[in-house]
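Quick start: what a row looks like.
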Amino acid sequence: MPFDQLNEQDQTIELDATLGVEKSAKLGLLYAALAIGAALWIAAIAIFGLPGLYVPAVAAVPVCFLCLMLITVGK
């Protein structure tokens, strides 16, 4: 069946399949970023010891505070 003769249901299924691929690609990218961040933090602990553990956590405090403020305001 030619592409221009597809009915609405076929087009919806095709669109959903495309969106599923994009969502899974974004999810994979998120997991990869989290894994890289965790690996870097573990490497910092291995290289610098205790300061490698708490300096990234202290540096993340302003980011977490900003996220909480954005959630509170509703953005």
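That is the whole record. DSSP finds two helices and no strands in the chain. Helices lie at 8-48, 50-73.
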